[in-house]
Amino acid sequence: MDPARAFVALVHHPVYDRTGKVVSTALTNLDLHDIARSTRTYGLGGFFVVHPVEAQRELASRILGHWRDEGAELNDFRRMALERVHVVPTLEDAAKAVTDRLRERPQLIATCARPSGTAVRFTGFDCKLPILLVFGTGWGLTEELMATCDARLEPLQGPTDYNHLSVRSACAIVLDRLYGIRQD
Amino acid sequence: MDPARAFVALVHHPVYDRTGKVVSTALTNLDLHDIARSTRTYGLGGFFVVHPVEAQRELASRILGHWRDEGAELNDFRRMALERVHVVPTLEDAAKAVTDRLRERPQLIATCARPSGTAVRFTGFDCKLPILLVFGTGWGLTEELMATCDARLEPLQGPTDYNHLSVRSACAIVLDRLYGIRQD
User: What angle do CA A120, A125, A128 make, to 5 degrees?
Assistant: First the structure.
């Protein structure tokens, strides 16, 4: 698979909170930095921050603008990572932006910590199509949103029954499993 | 390898800053949370926060105490992750604590984003010995500190020449490569 035809979307709504209620989560500064650095390291085409609230999108744009402009001199590696981040109101806007760029609609691949009988394996993608990997903040993407995606990726699994990785960690691991180079 | 005989140390000194100067970095709240959640997910024996400055160790202990006590009701999964975190002044203190627990000294495995001719591969460990995986904050562990470790792990590698993962992301990926369960 060509990582340049793969994209990440970080969705802040609709996601669950810890009680199972559907909410919008607040932007987390380090999500932007960590996921931007991971997508850049693994050669992805881009990273979309999805938030329905205009003030939160403005905040994201201000953070990105800082590192693109004044911060660039301080840390050029951050600029290189953050210049590929885009802020959009909905997941469909992210899908459309990828479609416009590649002239082909990406497969939307939802990620989820809960197991599912219909999940696709990490080696189970159709390599010919571009993909948009969809991550949820809070306690994860709603079932309703996942149902609008084309597929659902198998959950990450360690040797325990505890499965509460941060979205930053989960995204990094998924990209490494899909695009990491192993010498062994 | 038994993950319960593996531990992580996050070192705040001695590490490089972006100019190559040896510094102590400030504690980052999300490092504690993310790495605790990753070590718990992958079944590790524990996680050591290494900081030479007493005020920073006290801050770490206050954060951990909050989630162990008042925060536990709010989010029991955070408590479960953070209860295995220990705060120590030096890497040697972490190694000693592991030795006391297992009655066997762990191999100290340094991690580094820079390539090295002597690095061990992810499949190259002696499985019989316990291990302490050592991660650096800032711009990474100093060469001097790495020379005191028993081995140096090969760097993570994506398909690009950009390699600036956050330490939170790098730790998550290393644990997944060593202890993740793959169905494929």
Answer: 160
Q: Does B117 touch chain A (CB under 8 A)?
A: no
Handedness of CA A46, A48, A49, A54 (dihedral sign): positive
- Inform me whether the C-beta atom of residue A170 falls under 8 Å from chain B C-beta atoms: yes
The answer, for B176 touching chain A at a CB cutoff of 8 Å, is: yes
Alpha-carbon span A135 to A131, nearest angstrom: 13
- Is the backbone peptide bond immediately before B14 cis, with ω within 30 degrees of 0? yes
Q: How far apart are the two ends of chain A, measured CA to CA in Å?
A: 19
Chain A CA closest to residue B75: A18
Nearest to B158 among A157, A179, A184 (CB): A179
Contact B160 A77 (CB under 8 A): no
Residues of B in contact with A164 (CB under 8 A): 37, 40-41, 77, 81
pTM: predicted TM-score of the whole model, two decimal places: 0.96
Query: Average pLDDT of each block of 10 consecutive residues along chain A (184 residues)?
Result: 94 96 97 96 97 97 86 75 93 98 97 91 84 97 97 95 95 96 78
Q: With an 8 Å Cβ cutoff, is A164 touching chain B?
A: yes
The answer to whether the peptide bond before residue A14 is cis (omega within 30 degrees of 0) is: yes
ipTM summary value: 0.95
Residue labelled with tokens 């499949």:
B123
CB contact under 8 A, A176 and B181: no
- Where b means 16+ CB within 10 Å and e means fewer, B140-156 reads bbbeebbeebbbbbbeb
Q: What is the pLDDT of residue A72?
A: 65
Q: Which residues pair with B15 in a beta bridge?
A: B23, B141
Name the residue of chain A whose CA is nearest to B157's CA: A181
Beta-strand relationship, A151-152 and A131-136? unpaired
Q: Is B157 on the interface with A (CB under 8 A)?
A: yes
Contact of B89 with B51, CB cutoff 8 Å: yes
Beta bridge partners, A47, equal A8, A85
